[in-house]
Amino acid sequence: MNLTTFIIVSVIKTVIALFVLLTAVAYSVWLERKVVGHIQNRWGPTRVGPFGLLQPLADGAKFLFKEDLIPPHVYKPLYIAAPMLAVMFALTSISVIPIGNVVTIGNIKTPLQITDVNIGLLIVLGITSLGVYGVALAGWSSNSKYSLLGGLRASAQMVSYEISLGLSLVGVLILAGSFSLRAIVDAQAGTFWGFIPRWNIFQGQIIAFFIYLTAAYAETNRVPFDLPEAETELVAGYHTEYSAMKFAMFFMAEYANMITVACLASLLFLGGWHGPLFGPPLLQAILPVFWFGLRVFMFLFIYIWVRGTLPRFRYDQLMAFGWKFLLPMAIANLVITALIVAIRS
Amino acid sequence: MPDNYFARYLPILIHFSLAALLATAIVLLSWIIGYRRPTRAKLSPYECGMTPVGDARQRFSVKFYLVAMLFILFDVEAVFLYPWAVILRDLKMFGFWEMLVYIGIVLVGFFYIWKKGVLDWGGASTGRGEV
Amino acid sequence: MLHLVLFLIFGAICVAGAVNLLVQRHPINSALSLVAVMASLAVEYLLLGAEFVAAVQVIVYAGAIMVLFVFVIMLLNAGEEARTGGSRVAILFGIPGMLAGSLLVAWVLITHSGTQEVSAGALPGPPREIANLLFHDFLLPFEVTSVLVLIAIMGAVVLAARPESIEQQKREG
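ok -> structure tokens follow
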């Protein structure tokens, strides 16, 4: 494969990945409205298309035609750049996430992943840490009290939980011995005693899994940690002054981040695409992707379920929980994991 | 080609460029299609329908600064833990002890900030550090 | 070929970011230029084969330290700087000095590069190699880092807690 073919294949894979991701984003919004509707004994969207399935398209069109307001009191360059940054980083972290085994199409053999790198997990963490800028700059450049408070809260919360998030992954790294997401998934192949899968969650990382999940909810500013956009006190938080598509872009970023987090949780703790394989070769090729998608869907569903169920934390509780509970727990988990692995090896 | 070091990172750059292009396209499209009919009320900062009071840029609690500072320090700690975790199987018990010493020293700092009340936010119990 | 082109492009972005950092009058623009410098430096490391260092560069510098900078600017409500005319001394000595310095560096590099040239990727770059070096050969410096972190934690607390203790003294005194 020469360089030109390689670049063409990469561009095709990227375009497909972005298309799938954005569709998934649009339909998670639909799913959220539908599920939260049913939780609250309502129907959710029903008017546009069967079961309201065309609602995301209608919403998208509506956002495009809405008034694109740029208030005079904002700091214009950053006010416009902030949603773009948020979307850019949110869409980029998907690039190292594998969704299945290596496939062969014609004579081109390619992994179901845009690229597999040695430091895959670190790249996701790095891009996540850059995601703070979108929120912080949106809050600051809007020059409105609610926006600034929301932006400050959001960024303080995101950086606080990022540490617990990072430390909860150390246990997985110890078990896998690699940063490559594909290698981490491969390390979870097989079963104990023939029936319990060797997923990291069953290898003693169950506490790490819950720390990761909690920290990830805070990272993505979701209920019960959605204080940055606590509508009862901050109107809409850092995107109060935004309208039309720029407003929607923050939601795109939020849902894309949710999907990345769900993918990462499946890969790191739940064995990625491992699952029973059966049937003809074509089915065997598709099944891993299906198992992976199923896990991601499950995580998204739990996200929505939690939103429909739990109340919001108070800000001091949120910070205390992150620093005084999650962080010590994450450190304890990694020390214990390290001790067990060190004794065994 | 895909086994080449450089070729493994090139797709990330391509992906990032396409994502940036997409973000720009969305903003531009919205700016071109969306109609604009600004009025004075629409353009004023949102303040629940009241006339805005004062400037938004006020000084805030020094706590936010402290959180960012502590974040850097613990982030540095985490960054050292990643490579250690990857080769722990080779380092065996020696690796465990060297990291225990490291974490132990950093935890002394953690204990210190805990006792100093840096991790307590607002509330009636503590009012420290507010500016 | 593409490798070299990318290296030059990101080098140019890096330098442009650094210049922009000095030229911009609003602190937030300067801070963001510094983020761009850090990010393009990370890409340069990556192109030279230092994967792990590149990732750490993004996580620590662009993702943590610059967040603190942006935070401080947000918190202090720092506005635009007034443009001073620039001191005459800086123009008289600064520009020739800078030129002489860069000429010196270029001369040293050109005359001595033959002896110490290292091709990209020849030095340890993959995380495992870095880890082996760090946790065997450079164990002591690594452990000393923890003391450094400890001191920094205390320093941050002391710095931030100062106004409070001053107020207390005022109230008591």
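The radius of gyration of chain B is 25 Å.
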